[in-house]
Amino acid sequence: ILNRILPDCDYVIENKKIILVPVKASIPEENDIFQSPQITVTGVISDEFGEVLPGVNINVLGTTQGVVSDLDGRYHVTLPSDATLVFSFVGYTRQTIVVDGQTIINVILKEDTQLMEEVVVVGFAKQKKSNLTGSVSSIKVGEILGDRPVVNTGNLLQGTMPGLQTTIDSGEPGGEYKFNIRGTTSINGG
User: Fold this and answer.
1) Alpha-carbon 49 to chain mean position
2) How big is the chain by its Cα radius of gyration, in Å?
3) Residue 124 region, left (φ>0) first, then alpha (ψ -120 to 50), else beta?
4) Which residues pair with 78 in a beta bridge?
5) Each residue of 61-71: pLDDT tens digit?
6) Could you give the CA distance from residue 186 to residue 189 in angstroms, rounded to a whole number?
7) Of 2, 43, 4, residue with least CA distance to 21
C-alpha cells in the first residue's frame, strides 16, 4: 500500500514503526552537465524608422519555445546562453541572432518589399491580385466618402461597386439594408 500511495518515497520499518525516507536525488545525465546556463534576454523591437513593433514573434531556434513582443515592442525570454533567436513579423524580413551570452538584444526589422505584393483573399483561397478575373471589386472609402453625409455602411456602399445591390426594407429611419452580390440566383438555387 505504501508503494502505491507514496511512489516518490522509500520507507524503513524499525520496531514496528514506519519511517518515510525521500528518494535520493537522481544523478544528472551526461547531457545535462554540459548544457549552457539559462539567462534572460530582453530588448525592444522596432522598424527602420524607429517605430516599435508590437506582436513580433520571437522563437528559440530548434525548439517550440517563444514569446511575442508587447505593445511597446518589448520582449523577455529565458533560454540557454548559447541559443539562437529568430525574429519574424508579417511584412518584415526574418532576422536570426545568436545570443552568445548577451542579456539585452534590441532588434531593428527591415520591411520586406517582396512580401508586400498585393494579395486578395477570396471565399475559398488566397490569390495574387494579378491572377484574378473580374470577379473581385474593391473601393477606396476615402475617395467615395468625400463630402457625402453617411449614416451607416449601407448608405456608404450604395451605388459605389459594380455587382453590389443595396436595398433598404423601408423608408423609415433605422431600416435594415440588404446586400446582394452578383444577382439573386446562383447555381445552387438562390
Assistant:
1) 23
2) 31
3) alpha
4) 40
5) 888 888 999 99
6) 5
7) 2
